[in-house]
From TrEMBL:
GO CC aspect terms: periplasmic space
SUPFAM superfamilies, per database record: Periplasmic binding protein-like II
Protein name: PotD
Pfam families, alphabetized: SBP_bac_6
Family matches, as PROSITE patterns: PROKAR_LIPOPROTEIN
Species assigned in the record: Planktothrix agardhii (strain NIVA-CYA 126/8)
UniProt xrefs under PANTHER family: SPERMIDINE/PUTRESCINE-BINDING PERIPLASMIC PROTEIN, SPERMIDINE_PUTRESCINE-BINDING PERIPLASMIC PROTEIN
Gene Ontology BP term (one): polyamine transport
MF (Gene Ontology): polyamine binding
Keywords, in A-Z order: Periplasm, Signal, Transport
Length: 373
């Protein structure tokens, strides 16, 4: 899975500036996605736990973080490890991290704020030893921030049409022929079609979904390109009128400057979450460590609010808060504070069985080759 992230905070110090000014011995090393931890939040933590309490090591992509987890596990026992105390990974990789024994279970009793986390975010990190979502499983990660798959469109083009996109079904309208870009990803494209047909993104047996192939064929006729990385550029240039992308890519500033708007589809969408995990080789402790302090610190209401605004993502903690306790700019942003009814209809992308994965891959191959019947 590929997602792109941008730090949206205005006037924020860069994380590297903060790290460079920290001369003391570091007690906690955390590997993170670049731009995912605002300097203001890092500074607050250091003020509370000590200037040398934490060092953040940024990586460019989530896949780089997962690969570093794998490399750390493959080192010979006699070789010194430079493994971090905590690593950020996307929820998509949690299944593989558990299966490969790259990480260890965590103890939520060490986090006072765990009980304030919405149950959906607690459940997504509760897995069995095969990495499958399991209500009887252990807690393997701590959710840090989340986002969703959204529809982004050019306001000027839709003024002429007399309507604006509200839901996935709008992507099938004939006036959008060759005007749309979709992610180059099977789970996203097949998933939004499943959602349009009233099914889950996690549908295991595609053969039982009536009209799925015919719906995908109709949608394919409206697609100008499949792109997971640079889809905003043709939208801004007017080569496309509508794109399906990620909430993290489309800040209010980007929307305003380029005449764009974004909407979370009413029938529900795909959710994702970035997680804190502890590498398997890190020594565990029955008492709260600095790593546990960092996890819990991120869930403090004031901190959660700040990181949501500065990173253009959603701390799951704010979803359980009284909206009147949130800044107006946050509670009135439907991408950062989605409608609860839409959230209930949305899905995290859960692991699929090998047989289900094969079905998705085969159908995706047909879509990309234009050979749907």
């Amino acid at each position: 899975m590929k997602r792109r992230f941008f730090l949206q905070g205005i006037g924020a110090l860069t994380l590297s500036q903060v790290v460079a000014g920290c001369k003391q011995a570091v007690a906690l090393t955390v590997e993170v996605l670049k731009g995912s931890v605002p300097a203001q939040v890092a500074n607050k933590f250091r003020q509370q736990f000590g200037r040398g309490a934490v060092n953040f090591v940024p990586q460019t992509q989530l896949k780089d973080l997962f690969e570093r987890l794998e490399k750390g596990q493959s080192k010979p026992p006699t070789q010194p490890s430079s493994q971090a105390n905590l690593v950020m990974i996307g929820d998509f990789w949690l299944h593989s991290a558990i299966q490969q024994k790259l990480i260890q279970p965590l103890d939520p009793k060490l986090w006072p704020a765990w009980s304030q986390l919405p149950s959906r975010w607690q459940n997504i990190v509760q897995r069995n030893t095969q990495g499958e979502v399991d209500p009887q499983g252990q807690i393997w990660a701590a959710p840090y921030r989340s986002g969703s798959t959204v529809i982004i469109y050019r306001v000027d083009k839709f003024q002429g049409l007399g309507w604006t996109p509200k839901d996935w079904s709008d992507l099938w309208r004939p006036e959008l022929r060759h005007r749309i870009s979709l992610p180059d990803q099977a789970r996203e494209v097949i998933g939004l079609t499943l959602k349009k047909l009233g099914h889950s993104y996690n549908t295991a047996d595609l053969s039982k979904v009536k009209n799925l192939e015919s719906e995908l064929l109709k949608l394919h006729q409206n697609i100008k390109l499949y792109d997971s990385n640079s889809y905003l550029k043709p939208l801004i240039l007017g080569d496309t009128w509508l794109a399906v992308g990620w909430s993290t890519d489309i800040s209010p500033e980007v929307q305003y400057q380029n005449g764009l708007a974004a909407v979370v589809p009413q029938s529900g969408t795909a959710l994702w979450s970035d997680l804190w995990v502890k590498p398997a080789e890190v020594q565990s402790s029955p008492t709260a460590t600095l790593a546990d302090n960092w996890i819990d610190f991120c869930w403090l209401p004031q901190v959660a609010t700040q990181l949501s605004l500065l990173t253009g993502t959603t701390s799951p903690i704010i979803l359980g808060m009284n909206p009147q306790e949130l800044p107006q700019s946050l509670r009135e942003n439907p991408l950062l504070f989605p409608d609860q009814a839409i959230l209930k209809k949305s899905d995290f992308l859960e692991p699929l069985s090998p047989n289900s994965v094969k079905q998705y891959q085969q159908l995706w191959g047909k879509i990309r080759r234009g050979k749907l019947q």
